[in-house]
């Protein structure tokens, strides 16, 4: 699986290392941006979310850890892979990560200088491919093509989500769920052939991996309770889809309950 033209942020205050790594990554069709301190790095992330961050030594000591914590604690950045490059052993007492910081490090890769920038490229590619494999795989089920098109357009903008299929009725959804094994099935209720509640019951019984998030215009208490009884983990009224849909998909993909709080 190849990630095309990934956006890489290099955070390091050694201009020679930054230039060498930038040249190597751009030769591999990556889009590279750079920052020399924590404030600039945060600004670069806000201006355009990277697919991966290479975090090297920056001054003052401790700022790499603070930036690492900022990235890892931001829900919107959960999909961003982080490669930490510590200072060289002889410089770690003054520029490297402190022991307590290293114990709390949550980076996908951790190494120390000196490192060959060219040799980092395949490691970075491997991290990008692993992140791609971690995307939330979504099956959209709705009998209206316009609705499916709109949902697909919204999800395509999310770097942590991937639409793996679409179905126009519950029977097709059941067959596709068994074949595609999506992480989340976004399920309408009123559909021909097999309605969404029956499809939800069968998917929850036969596809343990797939979590169902019901998306419907019928947001009364009866439908909410029926969705819960059918096995859905989430319920999003179509009227509130723009504000709750993405949150709901991420929540149910983690196995979290996104429905009981709606029941009076």
List the helices and strands and how they pair.
Layout: E1 7-11, H1 15-26, E2 31-35, H2 38-47, E3 52-55, H3 63-73, E4 81-86, H4 92-95, H5 99-103, E5 109-112, H6 117-133, E6 136-141, H7 145-156, E7 161-167, H8 170-180, E8 184-187, H9 196-206, E9 211-216, H10 221-230, E10 234-237, H11 241-253
Parallel strand pairs: 1-2, 1-3, 3-4, 4-5, 6-7, 6-8, 8-9, 9-10
Helix pairs in contact: 1-6, 8-9, 9-10
Quick overview of this protein structure:
This protein has 264 residues and is α/β, with parallel strands linked by helices. Helix content is 44%, strand content 19%. The strands form two sheets. The chain has a five-stranded parallel sheet with strand order 2-1-3-4-5, sandwiched between helices. Strands 7-6-8-9-10 form a five-stranded parallel sheet, with helices on both faces.
What features would you describe in this structure?
The protein is of the alpha/beta class and 264 residues long. The chain has two domains: 7-133, Rossmann fold; 136-262, Rossmann fold (3-Layer(aba) Sandwich). The protein is built from eleven helices and ten strands. The strands form two sheets. It has a five-stranded parallel β-sheet, sandwiched between helices. A five-stranded parallel β-sheet has the order 7-6-8-9-10, sandwiched between helices. The protein is elongated and about 70 Å long. The mean pLDDT is 91.
């Amino acid at each position: 699986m190849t990630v095309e033209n990934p956006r890489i942020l290099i955070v390091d205050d050694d201009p020679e290392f930054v230039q060498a790594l930038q040249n190597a990554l751009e030769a591999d069709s990556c889009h590279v941006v750079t920052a020399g301190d924590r404030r600039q790095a945060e600004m670069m992330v806000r201006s355009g979310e990277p697919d991966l961050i290479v975090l090297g030594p920056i001054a003052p000591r401790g700022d790499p850890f603070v930036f690492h914590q900022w990235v890892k604690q931001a829900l919107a950045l959960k999909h961003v892979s982080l490669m930490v490059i510590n200072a060289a052993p002889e410089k770690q007492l003054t520029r490297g990560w402190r022991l307590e910081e290293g114990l709390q490090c949550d980076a996908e890769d951790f190494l120390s200088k000196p490192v060959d920038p060219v040799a980092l490229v395949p490691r970075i590619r491997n991290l990008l491919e692993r992140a791609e494999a971690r995307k939330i795989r979504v099956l959209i089920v709705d009998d209206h093509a316009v609705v499916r098109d709109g949902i697909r357009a919204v999800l395509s903008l999310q770097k942590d989500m991937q639409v793996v299929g679409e179905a126009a009725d519950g029977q097709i959804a059941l067959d596709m769920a068994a074949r595609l094994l999506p992480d989340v099935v976004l399920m309408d209720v009123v559909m021909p052939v097999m309605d969404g509640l029956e499809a939800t019951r069968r998917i929850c019984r036969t596809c343990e991996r797939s979590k169902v998030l019901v998306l419907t215009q019928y947001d009364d208490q009866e439908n909410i309770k029926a969705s819960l009884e059918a096995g859905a983990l989430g319920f999003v009224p179509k009227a509130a889809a723009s504000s709750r849909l993405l949150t709901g998909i991420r929540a149910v993909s983690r196995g979290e309950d996104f429905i009981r709080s709606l029941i009076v």
